[in-house]
Amino acid sequence: MTAVPVLIGMRPPVVETEADAAPGAPLVDTHGRVHRDLRISLTDRCSLRCTYCMPEQGNEWLAKTSILTLDEIERVARVAAADGITTFRLTGGEPLLRQDIVEVVRRLARITGPDGTPVELAMTTNGIRLPEFLPGLVEAGLRRLNISLDTLRRDRFRELTRRDRLDDVLDGIAAAAASGLRPLKLNAVAMRDVNDDELVDLVEFAIAHDAQMRFIEQMPLDAGHTWDRSRMVTRDEILDTLSRRWSLTPVPGRGGAPAERWMLDGGPHTVGVIASVTAPFCGDCDRLRLTADGQLRNCLFSTTEYDLLPILRTASSSVAGSAPVAGSAPVAEPPSVAELVEASSPLDEEIDRMLRSCVRGKLPGHAINDPSFLQPARGMNAIGG
Ligand code: SAM
User: Fold this and answer.
1) 180: pLDDT confidence band, cut at 50, 70 and 90?
2) For residues 324 and 311, what is the distance between their CA atoms, to the nearest angstrom?
3) Pocket around ligand 1: residues whose beta carbon is below 6 Å from it?
């Protein structure tokens, strides 16, 4: 059977052959990268409107009917874990806006890999609803948290996120610090003339909350397509600023992690930099993404998506036999748990094939620095950061 990727850009489709499909085998791409990490976006909705991510108004939301149900997410996640995915990171949009978020965590945390080891469940959040949800999330099996915090100044926060919610975010960080979840990471996009005078303050704030500060180079992923390379704050500039306050010693053993880390004054505290633009780390990338509307993506910057929605929503009779169709196909009613169970094996095989097709189609790098680079049509909120 042939899995057909949905082209939303100019890249040619990767057609998978029968011989490539081996359910349960690791997800290795044509460049030898083994995939261990699945980012699962739960919604494209967000309680903030960060300027580098979403427009203030007029955002085109994903159709509610196309948002994956809890059963559908769990189904894909189980197949991915059987294929060697060891970490699920829940993201969005804002994952805590999802009504069934505690149940999502509970179901995904129960999933084990082929050797019986439970997957690791992490979440990236703006923190706003953490005081309300954190006890339930921890009890349900959440193990790690990344919280976004770009500024400590209220006026800046309001301008940057177009919402007056800094106090709520800080309450969320306090709740996370008080929880047992470690390592706790705080993420800031470094922006010129916006927060680049706060880098040291943010690191000190993180240290005071037993957290690790990480700075992200701004990427061309804003819905408004306003990214300007000449304005972005680079890794080297970030390190230059921090090294005026601390001595920085590289932490070895980065593996597939997006952040390079440095010890501050010999440790134990560290700071991380995610330099996707000036020092891409694609050679070690082990990540796949599942969007809230069921599209598999092999790169943040990919212009090709692999549509799981028709597979998940096709009646059980055709689950076994049909090739997936393009995203323009009508979206059927989500299946019930009983229907999913009944259709188990053929459906899982279809999901497995699509995962493999997506992995096989992964390019060696994201090519942001190539003149032919094409920004993906989706903004970061609809991809899942
Ligand atoms: N709402 C959650 C949050 O605020 O963390 C999760 C989704 S958000 C899209 C995930 C991460 O993506 C955040 O840390 C955010 O700062 C980052 N992000 C969004 N747009 C970005 C861009 N254009 N460049 C770099 N990072 C970006």
Assistant:
1) confident
2) 6
3) 46, 52-53, 91-92, 94, 124-126, 148, 187, 189, 216, 218-219, 221-222, 380-381, 385
